[in-house]
Amino acid sequence: MLFSLPDPDTLYDALVARDASYDGRAYVGVTSTGIFCRLTCPARKPLRENCRFFTTTAECIADGFRPCKRCHPIGTSAEADPVIARLLSVLDSEPDRRWTEGDVETMGFDTSTVRRVFRRQFGMTFIQMARQRRMRMGAKTLAEGGKVIEAQLDAGFDSPSAFRASFAKLLGVAPSEMRTDAMLRADFIDTPLGAMIAVSDAKSLRMLEFPERKGLAAQLKRIFETANGSMGFGRFEATDQVAEELGDFFAGKRSTFDVPLAQNYGTPFQREVWEALRKIPAGETRSYGQLAAEIGRPTAMRPVASANGANQIALVIPCHRVIGADGTLTGYAGGLWRKQKLIEIERQFR
């Protein structure tokens, strides 16, 4: 099931209006320049007669168009935003800094604009992203055997209670409950769509999620409890493997994952749905009704949707490939903007 383009006049109106609802789902090739763009490109708009519209970047390239250097149609749209690019650059250079909105304003940015563009692209504000980076530094200290007070200071918190609260909000447990000899290990994996949290045991991957997922802390706490309180920071082989496979996926080198997955969670029905999700080829989508029919339960659309939402191994079990029957993007725990980007990325594998 693929997105069908509306008529060219509608798409040209969307191009003129820079309609973000088409971002990643439609592209324009400009015959007068030989360049193809997103419909949200900030460049001056071409004449209607010079526009050709496509559903994928591969189609644009096949027709001889080159990617625009302003809107970066092959990358994520965040790369094309100068506000985001500048702030991500300074964050990378000073990850341990306690950033404030006053700092952002001093750099010459409008704070409301920064909040808006970061929420749109990353599902969090710049200040929240900076705080999450600092939390990762504290987590690294704990993973290396450091004390909680050292982790607190490395994360940039003056208050022990504030550090514990922020830690528990992100990971579901207090920092003092994490163990160095744990049965389960949690770590962060960087991706072009933001950091992900991976949890593995000695043999398999248990969880892979974006930190902004609603209910993540509760989910991690349940995993923590099933391991009899034995969770710590660090990596087993499965985390290293999925990190490498994610790198290849985002580089366009692989469309499937081979990392072993935990088999002891979820109901039999949920596992049946998750297996069906893994059979959807990259670059294609299914509606809940189609997925229900494929597992031989055509009337089970709501249970299928519920099982889809219960998936705790994002991307590897590709729940993002399920959309509404009318082609619209339905809810995604990692954020609709990520779902759109993933569908866009996977079109290169079609």
Question: How would you sum up this structure, described in words?
Answer:
This protein is an alpha/beta fold and 350 residues long. It has helices spanning 8-17, 57-62, 82-93, 101-106, 111-122, 126-143, 148-154, 160-171, 216-226, 237-250, 268-278, 288-294, 301-310, 336-346, and strands at residues 27-30, 35-38, 51-54, 66-67, 184-189, 196-200, 205-209, 231-233, 286-287, 322-323. The strands form three sheets. It has a four-stranded mixed beta sheet with strand order 3-1-2-4. Strands 7-6-5-8 form a four-stranded mixed beta sheet. It is globular. The mean pLDDT is 84.
Short description:
The chain is α/β, with parallel strands linked by helices and 350 residues long. It has helices at residues 8-17, 57-62, 82-93, 101-106, 111-122, 126-143, 148-154, 160-171, 216-226, 237-250, 268-278, 288-294, 301-310, 336-346; strands at residues 27-30, 35-38, 51-54, 66-67, 184-189, 196-200, 205-209, 231-233, 286-287, 322-323. β5 (184-189) and β6 form a beta hairpin.
